[in-house]
Specification:
Blueprint: E1 3-16, H1 25-32, E2 41-54, H2 65-80, E3 83-84, H3 98-110, E4 118-124, E5 130-133, H4 136-142
Parallel strand pairs: 1-3
Antiparallel strand pairs: 1-2, 2-4, 4-5
The structure holds zinc ion.
């Protein structure tokens, strides 16, 4: 059976600084380059949320998109928009890389989307940087 899916696009603006206390100041500069600037910098983040599943293309079988929009607004956009990501409690022990951000957004959404319908979360950080995560279960199911 084919699998349909739909992807919704969301946006938020946030600041961050790539820095880890596990490295020295010099090592941080080498690893993260200008993103380690102590004053931080901002991005216009784009979040792509894909939901779907077996038979999802048929009416009534995917999550209601208004409900998805509400979940993303409450769990993601209101949490991160016009904030400093480094101040978010989840980033107290993790660096605010795109890889970690897309994982966190997945974790914040996966319990809110019914029936394993969350298929993929992607974050566009800059013109050239794109991160995506499909969850360990769905990766296993594809192989
Ligand atoms: Zn950055």
């Amino acid at each position: 059976m084919g699998q349909g899916s739909i992807t919704r696009r969301y946006r938020f603006c946030a600041a961050h600084r790539l820095h880890t206390d596990h490295l020295s100041a010099e090592e941080n500069r080498v690893v993260f380059g200008k993103c380690n600037n102590p004053n931080g910098h901002g991005h216009n983040y784009v979040v792509l949320v894909t939901i779907g599943g077996p038979g999802a293309a048929r009416a009534g079988q995917t999550m209601d998109l208004d409900a998805l929009d509400r979940v993303v607004a409450e769990r993601i956009v209101s949490r991160f928009d016009h904030r400093d990501l480094n101040q978010d409690p989840e980033f107290a022990v993790r660096t605010t890389t795109g890889e970690n951000l897309v994982l966190l957004i997945w974790d914040l959404l996966v319990t809110q989307v019914p029936g394993g319908q969350l298929k993929k979360v992607a974050v566009i950080e800059t013109r050239d940087n794109y991160f995506e995560y499909t969850g360990s279960a769905s990766v296993a199911a594809r192989s």
